[in-house]
């Protein structure tokens, strides 16, 4: 069944090639005839899922790089251009951004599986270490990728993470300067991160080849943890493992598509929709969810150098696992104590992840220290100890015996476990927005919420009117072009109407033949002109406050949902924190600040604004804007309409996203069902 | 769970395999679409390619200007009487790409030649007022165009294309 090159093509042309380059024999022996233990469960499909994710990330990444501009002044805008103007750009960007999370989600399951079933033990030590190297490379790649959109979290994440290296004695500062290529994080940093972010995935791919090579030398581990001895213990990779992996991949794609099409920003941070500002740090710097446990370890240690060492140590320690755990029984299935401690360890990791998302104060710090101790204790104390004191249960004689002792019905439980684990793990990130928003904004019924949500055309048109007559005097809308008003899924204007709307505006153009700038009537291709020429002018005219650009405001604002609402949100697809907040702020003005609240000069009291003192005067009052369609001229209606409009400006292709999402789901459910039955058929005679 | 071997239901089994394979293939093909479609010009680029207006008043007789439309150089030549005559009196049979001058200018605006200044050979930009026909000469591979922008000698296969344009007034054209 095995053996390197018993494969002989019959076609003479293929024969000719095979004699000179035995590539078909290599593929055949690695992915067709390769013997795979017949008792593998679905946790083993994550190898295939990870291969798919790596390929998908490289593919979408290469495509995004065709449209992305790695320059500090243009990076943020170029991403908005991808999402708004490039054909299917929103899809590719969502795939890549959510794909990073999915990649880590899958790799964590893959790692925990290896941990549980002892896949790192002799003779698979190198295989395991290669995996740790891949994980480290993934972390570096993911971090640098998160910097590229050049939003607030990108910038400050880059600042914090590069500053970790300043903890190195003597050389720290020099190393950090070397990483930055300047006196601070700036354009050179962005450029090199882009270069490395493009390079590292191919390095990962190279190490993955070694990883698979090492796997095929040692052979796959399996749930029983006994090596395959006879042909009865194994089945050929194709069709058995292939079809099982395909089914696993298809299930995973369903989970993945849920994010891509229905909650693309669930795993992200609202602050990253604010362009990088080197002068203002966001209230709470939080890394992406997949780094949170290590972030918690970093913050638990009150010494800078020790914290950094502990954080990196928490990852490096994995490489020593084969020698820390000396137990001769591989699989935790037959290790009653190790099994329980494994699950405790999983909880410790999830707990660290949760703590990493919380502000570093009070009980969270103490809990963080306890969990950090438990994390290291698991590797340094518990595993070495267990291998001495634990009495394992007898392992089966062979894989075939293990299969005979087993019964089916695991698929459902695995799928449920996957979904729940997914919700739990990724949901942790929601807590990251621990910000003092005071009162939580009241929920609204939005026409655009939910999987079938669409924009209310009337509300969009009225909202545009409110923006034009009220907001536009201080707030720009610089990512929206007049032509967008005539695009599908928008306010529903005709091309001629959009052109007429544009011609009402004066746009600066030039230089002309004499080298002078001039004003002309707006064209559909022009963008909404900003009310102020630059930030300084805006601040000077607004008592020191900078009225933010409103293009992305509904995505750039959020509020804390807290536990357990963020878990519920995953299933209900609630993602309207931004609109709810914007609408609440517009209506949250109170004439008098509550007694005891010291309202600063030139500020106004707003119930929902963080800190309550807002520089913007109450913008809306009843009857201020005249509606032609009979909608009530009230503040509540204005707020609702303009928020709907601003949700559209933040994501003009939302309707296309949800529509394609439905089609993809119908397709994937069909494919997954077919793969399930095909898999059952293929495996019918193997069980 | 059935343990019957596949041989008992060959057709049903085959149908399932073919159906699964077909659905997967359809999905793969559909997934390729956005991956390729993204390479087409994006909406901002298309919008920027809207028609432009050019004022002809500053262009004196015998002069020409170069404007850009959709990233392409457009030559606008104010032809002299001599140039117009040369363009009109050539016998069509002697041209590699026969086209009368009248088909290359707008009726009543004989003095204005508007052509896309991209050599039809391999895309270089020909130089105006050069070459043996008083028209355009491409320095890359030596194609020579006449005062109507028609190819006269050299490797280029066809005349310089005329972009879509109209006279908004006697002194203003709209290209596109």
Descriptive report:
The complex is a heterodimer of chains A (about 675) and B (about 180). Chain A is mostly helical and about 675 residues long. Chain A folds into three domains: about 1-35, no CATH class; about 35-435 and about 660-685, Cytochrome Bc1 Complex, Chain C (Up-down Bundle); about 455-480 and about 525-650, Cytochrome Bc1 Complex, Chain D, domain 2 (Orthogonal Bundle), CATH 1.10.760. Chain A has 25 helices and six strands. In chain A, strands 1-2 form a two-stranded antiparallel sheet. Chain A has a two-stranded antiparallel ribbon with strand order 3-4. In chain A, a hairpin with a 7-residue loop joins strand 5 and strand 6 (about 615). The two termini of chain A are about 20 Å apart. Chain B is of the alpha+beta class and about 180 residues long. Chain B has two domains: about 10-35; about 45-175, Rieske [2Fe-2S] iron-sulphur domain (Rieske Iron-sulfur Protein), CATH 2.102.10.10. Chain B contains three helices and ten strands, in the order H-H-E-E-E-H-E-E-E-E-E-E-E. Chain B has helices spanning about 10-35, 45-50, 80-90, and strands at about 50-55, 65-70, 70-80, 110-115, 125-130, 135, 145, 150-155, 165-170, 170-175. In chain B, strands 5-6-7-8 form a four-stranded antiparallel beta sheet. A three-stranded antiparallel beta sheet of chain B has the order 1-10-9, with no helix packed on it. In chain B, a hairpin with a 6-residue loop joins strand 6 (about 135) and strand 7 (about 145). The radius of gyration of chain B is 27 Å and the shape is elongated. Residues about 1-5 of chain B have low confidence and may be disordered. The interface of A and B includes residues 84, 91 and 667 of A.
């Amino acid at each position: 069944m095995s053996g390197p090159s018993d494969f002989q093509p019959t076609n003479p042309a293929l024969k000719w090639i095979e004699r000179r380059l035995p590539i078909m024999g290599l593929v055949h022996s690695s992915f067709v005839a390769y013997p795979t233990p017949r008792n593998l469960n679905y946790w083993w499909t994550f190898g295939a899922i990870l291969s798919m994710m790596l390929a998908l990330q490289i593919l979408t990444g290469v495509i995004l790089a065709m449209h992305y501009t790695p320059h500090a002044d243009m990076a943020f805008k170029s991403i908005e251009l991808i999402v708004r103007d490039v054909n299917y750009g929103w899809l590719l960007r969502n795939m890549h951004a959510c794909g990073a999370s999915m990649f880590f989600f899958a790799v964590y399951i893959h790692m925990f599986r290896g941990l549980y079933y002892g896949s790192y033990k002799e003779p698979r030590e190198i295989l395991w270490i290669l995996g740790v190297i891949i994980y480290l490379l993934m972390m570096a790649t993911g971090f640098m990728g998160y910097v590229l959109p050049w939003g607030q979290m990108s910038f400050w994440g880059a600042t914090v993470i590069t500053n970790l290296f300043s903890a190195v004695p003597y050389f720290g500062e020099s190393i950090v300067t070397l990483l930055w290529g300047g006196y601070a994080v700036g354009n050179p940093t962005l450029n090199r991160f882009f270069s490395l972010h493009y390079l590292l995935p191919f390095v990962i791919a190279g190490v993955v080849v070694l990883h698979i090579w090492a796997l095929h030398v040692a052979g796959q581990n399996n749930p029983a943890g006994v090596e395959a001895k006879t042909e009865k213990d194994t089945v050929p990779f194709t069709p058995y493992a292939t079809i099982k992996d395909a089914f696993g991949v298809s299930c995973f794609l369903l989970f993945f598509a849920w994010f891509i099409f229905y909650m693309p920003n669930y795993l992200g941070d609202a602050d990253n929709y604010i362009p990088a500002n080197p002068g203002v740090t966001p209230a709470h710097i939080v890394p992406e969810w997949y780094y949170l446990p290590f972030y918690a370890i970093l913050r638990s240690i009150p010494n800078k150098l020790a914290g950094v060492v502990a954080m990196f140590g928490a990852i490096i320690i994995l490489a020593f696992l084969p020698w820390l755990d000396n137990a001769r029984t591989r699989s935790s299935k037959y290790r009653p104590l190790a099994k329980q401690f494994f699950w405790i360890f999983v909880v410790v990791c999830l707990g660290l992840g949760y703590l990493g998302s919380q502000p570093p104060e009070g009980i969270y710090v103490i809990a963080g220290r306890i969990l950090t101790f438990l994390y290291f204790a698991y590797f340094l104390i518990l595993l070495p100890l267990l291998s001495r004191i634990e009495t394992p249960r007898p392992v089966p004689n062979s894989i075939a015996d293990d299969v005979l002792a087993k019964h089916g019905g695991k698929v459902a439980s695995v799928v449920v476990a996957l979904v729940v684990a997914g919700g739990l793990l990724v949901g942790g990130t929601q807590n990251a927005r621990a910000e003092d928003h005071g009162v939580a904004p009241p929920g609204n019924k939005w026409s655009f919420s939910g999987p079938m949500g669409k924009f209310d055309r009337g509300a969009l048109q009225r909202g545009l009117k409110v923006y034009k007559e009220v907001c536009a005097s201080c707030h720009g809308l610089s990512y929206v072009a007049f032509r967008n008003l005539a695009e599908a899924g928008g306010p529903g204007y005709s091309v001629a109407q959009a052109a007429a709307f544009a011609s009402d505006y004066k746009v600066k153009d030039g230089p002309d033949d004499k080298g002078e700038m001039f004003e002309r009537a707006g064209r559909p291709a022009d963008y909404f002109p900003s009310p102020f020429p630059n930030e300084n002018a805006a601040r000077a005219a607004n008592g020191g406050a900078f009225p933010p650009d409103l293009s992305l405001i509904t995505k750039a604002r959020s509020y804390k949902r807290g536990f357990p609402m963020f878990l519920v949100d995953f299933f209900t697809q609630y993602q309207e924190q931004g609109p709810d907040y914007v609408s609440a702020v517009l209506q949250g003005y109170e004439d008098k600040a509550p007694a005891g609240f010291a309202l600063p000069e030139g500020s106004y009291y707003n119930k929902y604004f963080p800190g309550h003192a807002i520089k913007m005067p109450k913008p809306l009052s009843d009857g201020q804007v005249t509606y032609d369609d009979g909608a009530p001229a009230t503040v509540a209606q204005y707020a609702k309409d303009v928020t709907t409009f601003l949700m559209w400006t933040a994501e003009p292709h939302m309707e296309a996203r949800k529509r394609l999402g439905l089609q993809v789901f119908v397709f994937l459910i069909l494919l997954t069902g077919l793969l399930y039955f095909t898999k059952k058929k293929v495996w019918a005679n193997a069980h | 769970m059935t343990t019957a071997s596949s041989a008992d239901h060959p057709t049903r089994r085959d149908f399932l395999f073919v159906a699964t394979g077909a659905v997967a293939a359809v999905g793969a093909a559909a997934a390729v679409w956005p991956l390729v479609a993204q390479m087409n010009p994006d909406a901002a680029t298309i919008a920027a390619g809207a028609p432009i207006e050019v004022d002809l008043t500053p262009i004196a007789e015998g002069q020409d200007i170069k404007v850009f439309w959709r990233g392409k150089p457009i030559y606008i030549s104010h032809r002299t009487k001599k140039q117009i005559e040369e363009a009109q009196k050539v016998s069509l049979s002697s041209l590699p790409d026969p086209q009368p001058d009248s088909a290359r200018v707008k009726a009543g605006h004989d003095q204005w030649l508007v052509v896309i200044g991209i050599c039809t050979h391999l895309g270089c930009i020909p130089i105006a007022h050069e070459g043996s026909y008083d028209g355009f000469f491409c320095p890359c591979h030596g194609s020579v165009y006449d005062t109507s922008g028609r190819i006269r000698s050299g490797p280029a296969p066809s005349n310089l294309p005329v972009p879509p344009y109209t006279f908004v007034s006697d002194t203003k054209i709209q290209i596109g």
